[in-house]
Amino acid sequence: MASHIDLSRLRELIDVAADRIAHAGPHRVLPDGFARVGLPVPTEDGTKSERAKRSVTAVPGERLPEVARLMLARGVVDPGTRNAIQDVLWAAEPVLPIPKRTRRDVARRLDLSEFLPFYNRLKTLLDNLWVLGEEPFPLLLSDGGGWSLGAQIDRHVHRNPGDWTAEDLFDNLGAFDTSDKRFGLFLEGLVSAETLPDEPAQRRIVAAINPLLKGVGLLLSETEEVDGYPAFRLRSTRAHGGRPKTLIFAAPRKPDLRLSDVIDNEIEIATGAEQVLVYDRPITGDGLRWCDLQAWWKDTQALDDDDDAKRTLWRRLRQSLPATSPPQRMLFDLYHDIHGERIHELPALLPEVWLHWDPQTVKARGAEAMLNLRMDFLMLLPGGHRVVLEVDGKHHYATGEIADPSVYAKTMRGDRDLKLARYDVFRFGAADLDERATAWEMLRAFFADLFRTHHVG
Questions:
Q1: Residue 409: predicted pLDDT
Q2: H/E element, 389
Q3: Between vectors from CA 174 to CA 151 and to CA 85, what angle results, nearest 5°?
Q4: How many domains does the chain have?
């Protein structure tokens, strides 16, 4: 679970980093150095440390995370302070717990010889995540030895293969006791092409450690391709591991489809192409954002202007919503109104998405087989999480004006099926979306909590 950022501890660490910036050059360059990381420029009187202290004190608490992230991005902090700042920021984010026993089992399963052909890349990964230290008198170490952790790794992993096992390396790094976030990044880094530009080796390592991760509900899942190599991201097995192949949405009625190439799963719209949208581009680990959907729309509609693409796409999606469901339209409108220009980087709210499709008719297949074919709204969030939003009118629990337990049971059956298929389902009563002001506040709080939970934006 996510928690609040420890702003007091964060200010202490920023204080340390600011003092380091202040002493990196003469007084006259201090204003530029502070401005680069979002710190206010203090008055000119006093020592460098005093000026740095006044600058950090003047930063409002809500801006401290922004300053900290700028410091990390600019690389102005020493490794120890860097890691401490990261841990404070990460403590407020959702985490995937990785037990110590699983970490040790993973270490015992790894073969360090896989990484030796690319040792410098491995060392870069370690240096980015851990504090490897520096030698106090490097010129005296003509034999290539040393006392720092980095020098020990060079000796026992690189120059004398077999001295250390992967378990020894993990132990010396402190990997068994580090935060879940850092260990997760470590695993992702070990199987990335940045560290291991050898696809067969990447896949061997993933295949070796995934059975161990599955035991605690985790998986290194292939999410995309980067520069020709597979990219893997650690995810919960509650999320979807595969990449969506085809999204059929914004279709107010059952689309008339056919497979034009069964082997390649290529779909062709037989009739009524203007009434259905089919998104067939790769979906990365970031999910499907409005900017991705808008770029696809701009290309497929041969539009030259981004504003025109945004306006026409919004109109096309809204037109697909049933005129008989004002609450559904209210939810769609408010999602965009609440987030305004921020919508560009937020998940796209896809209306009228087809989950199942059957070429037969209700008469041929039976009414029960044709239930829950379509979702009111779908959002594809980072990490493979799929969120379904349903707006429940009376037809979800009544026949006409009379409550009907059998109708409600069918609704709940569909709900269970979606959840077992690893979709997170959230239902809104139509009455929740009758009055705009009340619906606005309810949806604002809902989406804020949803995005915080899944680390969106």
A1: 64
A2: strand 386-392
A3: 100
A4: 3
| Rounded Cα gap, residues 232 and 284, in angstroms | 11
Q: Are 97 and 140 in contact (CB under 8 A)?
A: no
Instruction: Specify if 2 maps to a domain.
Output: no
Is 39 found in the same domain as 129?
Answer: no
The 10s digit of each residue's pLDDT in 149-160 is 999 999 999 999
Domain extent at residue 129 = 100-236
What pLDDT is recorded for position 275? 77
Greater model confidence, 361 or 268:
268
Q: What is the mean pLDDT of the chain?
A: 85
Q: What global pTM score does this model have?
A: 0.61
Average pLDDT over residues 60-81: 94
Interval 170-191 mean pLDDT:
96
Co-location of 218 and 261 in the same domain? no
Does the residue 199 lie in any domain?
yes
pLDDT band at 323 (very low <50, low <70, confident <90, very high): confident
> 440: alpha, beta or left, given left = phi > 0 and alpha = psi -120 to 50?
alpha
Share of the chain above pLDDT 70, in %: 81
* 387 lies in the same domain as 411: yes
159 and 14 both lie in a single domain: no
Classify residue 88 by burial, with Cβ atoms within 10 Å: 0-12, 13-18, 19+: buried
Please tell me the predicted confidence (pLDDT) of residue 339: 96
**Two tokens at 386?**
């799929």
Is the backbone of residue 323 left (phi > 0), alpha (psi -120 to 50) or beta? alpha
* Whether residues 388 and 286 fall in one domain: yes
Q: 3-class SS at 422?
A: coil
Question: How much is the pLDDT for 187?
Answer: 97
Same domain, 76 and 105: no
Q: Are residues 430 and 354 in the same domain?
A: yes
197 exposed, middle or buried (CB, 10 Å; 0-12, 13-18, 19+)?
Answer: middle
Of 242, 232, 155, whose CA–CA distance to 195 is shortest?
A: 232
Considering the domain boundaries, does residue 95 fall inside one?
A: no
The verdict on residue 38 lying in a domain is yes
Name residues whose C-beta falls within 8 Å of residue 61's C-beta, 6 or more positions apart in sequence.
7, 11
Strands (E), 237-385: 247-249, 256-261, 266-271, 277-279, 350-354, 374-380
Q: Are residues 228 and 377 in the same domain?
A: no
Question: Which amino acid is present at 352?
Answer: E
The stretch 1-17 carries a mean pLDDT of 85
Domain boundary among 209, 236, 263: 236
| Domain C-terminal end among 194, 210, 236 | 236
